[in-house]
Amino acid sequence: MTAGAFPFEANPNPVDDARRAELLADPGFGRVFTDHMVTIRYSDDKGWHDAKVGPRAPLTLDPATAVLHYAQEIFEGLKAYRLADGTMALFRPEQNARRFQRSAKRLAMPELPEELFLQSCRQLVEVDQHWFPPVEGGSIYLRPFMIASEVFLGVKPSAEYLYMVIASAAGNYFKSGAPAIKIWVSEHYTRAAPGGTGAAKCGGNYASSLVAQSEAIRNGCDQVVFLDAAEHRWIEELGGMNLFFLFDDGTLITPPTDGTILEGITRESIIELAREQGLNVREERYAIDQWRADATSGKLVEAFACGTAAVVTPVGSVHSTNGSFTIGAGGPGQITQQLRGKLVNIQRGIAPDPHGWVQPI
Ligand code: PLP
Ligand code: COI
């Protein structure tokens, strides 16, 4: 199939204006959903077919649907913004489309053509554009995903798939709105091993991270940081964000993406912006013991997490069963705030976009 506009069926019972205004006044993250959704089906015999935008509604699934048993599922996350001039745009959506294809390949799923991915995102935002929250940092968060929909209990790649996009009004990811987050080091659990699915955005990675994330919350932290599976020493990433470390000589380090961490689009954008402002950016391994030593000696001056949902979020302190340490003064660092400002201003059409990252809808 080609990617012209998909057939559209309006939701006969959309959320009314008064209720929507109430929801949009404080949307938080991932709880307030728009009126419509996109669906596209795939089968081995027909290929991609039956694309449509219709009312957002519950799914009916046979209890033997493959995804419910073997977790053959992948997803993406990207934001639509209302720009300073009133138009709407997506940030580097082709990067999400390509990562979705890489995830599909790793999970033995069919690759959705880039143009269908882009059209599905654009059309949903167009239809549900009255769902932009009028709050600071507000956006529409898009969640494209694909599930194995064949009704079959044998362990093999499904012969049928359902691709969908839902949309959600989004404010801040971290509820506390805290100026800097607290990180918990998972000493027992790992997120991904060499040869595993760490670089794919598949639900299974998140399912296996939850016990460690719960441990972080129990210990008063916001997010868990995972170490490598082999030596349990090298810092990889957070449950849903990549990490950067800034040193007093202007060096910025981020762990390399060699198969066990997600190739974050925010990460890649920050690397470019940081190089442009003269920082010496290096993608190299950084050990947890070194982090503690460098933070204590003052050599490490800032650290931050980044991702679509979290944007750029300063890391204030790091906690583990071996004790805690503080990064810098424990609040947002100056370079972190600068980089965040640069990124957000491009995303929102406030600053020029020399890289062509912002795609009008
Ligand atoms: N790492 C993990 C595990 C994530 O879930 C995310 C969020 O998508 C990221 C990193 C950041 O990726 P991106 O910047 O593409 O959103
Ligand atoms: C995103 O940032 O888009 C993610 O998928 C991460 C998750 C923590 C919401």
TrEMBL record:
Protein name according to UniProt: Branched-chain-amino-acid aminotransferase
Species lineage: Bacteria, Pseudomonadati, Pseudomonadota, Alphaproteobacteria, Sphingomonadales
Family to which the UniProt record says this protein belongs: Belongs to the class-IV pyridoxal-phosphate-dependent aminotransferase family.
Pathway in which the depicted protein is active: Amino-acid biosynthesis; L-valine biosynthesis; L-valine from pyruvate: step 4/4; Amino-acid biosynthesis; L-leucine biosynthesis; L-leucine from 3-methyl-2-oxobutanoate: step 4/4; Amino-acid biosynthesis; L-isoleucine biosynthesis; L-isoleucine from 2-oxobutanoate: step 4/4
Name of one Pfam family that matches: Aminotran_4
CDD domains attached to this UniProt entry: BCAT_beta_family
Catalytic activity: L-valine + 2-oxoglutarate = 3-methyl-2-oxobutanoate + L-glutamate; L-isoleucine + 2-oxoglutarate = (S)-3-methyl-2-oxopentanoate + L-glutamate; L-leucine + 2-oxoglutarate = 4-methyl-2-oxopentanoate + L-glutamate
Gene Ontology biological-process annotations: isoleucine biosynthetic process; L-leucine biosynthetic process; L-valine biosynthetic process
Cofactor: pyridoxal 5'-phosphate
Entry EC no(s): 2.6.1.42
Gene3D superfamilies: 3.30.470.10, D-amino Acid Aminotransferase, subunit A, domain 2
Keywords noted in UniProt: Amino-acid biosynthesis, Aminotransferase, Branched-chain amino acid biosynthesis, Pyridoxal phosphate, Transferase
The species this protein was found in: Sphingorhabdus contaminans
UniProt GO molecular function: L-isoleucine-2-oxoglutarate transaminase activity; L-leucine-2-oxoglutarate transaminase activity; L-valine-2-oxoglutarate transaminase activity
Task of the protein: Acts on leucine, isoleucine and valine.
